[in-house]
Design goal:
The chain has about 270 residues and is α+β, with helices and mostly antiparallel strands. It is about 45% helix and about 5% strand.
């Protein structure tokens, strides 16, 4: 691709006016973007014309009328060969123009200067690699769901993930009794802790309900215990001998004979 060269100034003549400073013009009336053809709206005829030259910049020669093909007279514009001076910060001017163009563009047509592509989400980890709480029910559901969708495990064998889920299910089955016992023990400890915390309040409420003169009266009615008397837990009417003495003796004789026969058999063996 041939390299673009700036237009050459083919004459040293000027329009004998003072150099035109770009800082005195509206920012939208000229284009001095790097890498693009420099152009300007002629201050006299208000038409866009090319800026010629590399070191000495001039407005390209142009006519006032654009209807030369219709026979009108060729009349040069007074702005021909007008000397220009770039006395502005081109980068700052370009940034401001870009912002104005972006603001003037319809909202549906605006695009960021730099495109940001949303990354694709990473594939979800297999169920066998998820480090979750391994309970009996979760292990069972994971294993059954994998067997239902896996063609290898459906035939009675196990793939890699199916084997991992199966072993995890068996481990959960073996650990379930110990886990259940630990859970029950924890519940018992919590109940004991609650009872210990509430026991003083319960005793205080009982004392407030039954205390006072009623308790003092019951204590005062307690009789003195006599050491030689029969215990109140053994009444005097309890029988101390068997009701039928003859039947009792016959039963004891039969038991003696049975024990004798068992002893003789054991000694002979």
């Amino acid at each position: 691709m041939p390299r673009k060269r700036p237009g050459r100034v083919r004459t040293k003549h000027t329009n004998r006016r003072a150099p035109l400073l770009l800082s005195t013009m509206a920012p939208e009336d000229f284009n001095v973007r790097p890498g693009e053809t420099k152009s300007i709206a002629c201050p006299d005829c208000h038409t866009w014309r090319r800026i010629m030259g590399d070191t000495v910049l001039k407005i390209r020669e142009h006519c006032i009328s654009d209807k030369l093909a219709e026979g009108e007279k060729h009349t040069l514009c007074p702005g021909t060969d007008q000397v220009l001076v770039i006395d502005i910060d081109v980068q700052r001017w370009q940034a401001r123009q870009n912002r104005l163009l972006r603001d003037a563009m319809p909202q549906e047509n605006r695009r960021a200067a730099q495109q940001f592509y949303k990354p694709l989400p990473a594939p979800a980890a297999p169920v066998s690699r998820i480090n979750a709480e391994n309970t009996l029910e979760t292990a069972r559901q994971s294993y059954l769901a994998h067997r239902k969708g896996c063609t290898v495990c459906f035939k009675g064998q196990h793939c890699t993930d199916g084997g991992i889920l199966g072993r995890r299910y068996v481990l959960a089955l073996n650990q379930e009794p110990a886990r259940r016992e630990a859970s029950e023990e924890q519940e018992r400890r919590e109940r004991r802790t609650v009872r210990k915390q509430t026991a003083p309040a319960v005793r205080k409420a009982q004392w407030a309900k039954h205390g006072g003169t009623a308790v003092e009266t019951a204590n005062n009615r307690c009789a003195e215990h006599i050491a030689d008397s029969v215990s109140e837990f053994r009444g005097p009417q309890l029988p101390l001998a068997p009701h039928d003495v003859a039947a009792h003796d016959r039963r004891q004789a039969e038991l003696g004979k049975q024990y004798g026969r068992k002893a003789s058999v054991t000694s002979a063996a």
